[in-house]
Amino acid sequence: MPSALGDLSRRSIAPQWYLEPENGRNGSTPRIKLLTYSEVDGVEGKAGDFRVRIRRKAAYVNWDKCTGCGLCQQKCPSKNPSEFDRSMGLGKAIFTLSPQAVPNKPSLTR
Fold it and tell me: Has this prediction a pTM greater than 0.85?
């Protein structure tokens, strides 16, 4: 999922409004680098001295240029199976996980 909480927001019984403040706090902590829409590819070393290899998924949106205004989501004519709903319903091809998502940047499903 393209939000910092990823699948946790889908699996948790806690409502989205409860999870998002924690999500935002982590994004403002100087020693934590927020890598959304990414997966750990490997860990080497030992506790206190390790390296983590991370693979970033393609969002198909240039997040450096995106302002998070949502205009692309409003104008998108394409409907795809919703990733958040585990393909049980349709959603826009370009989406953010929630209005409070950190970062508030969309991803495009292909």
Answer: no
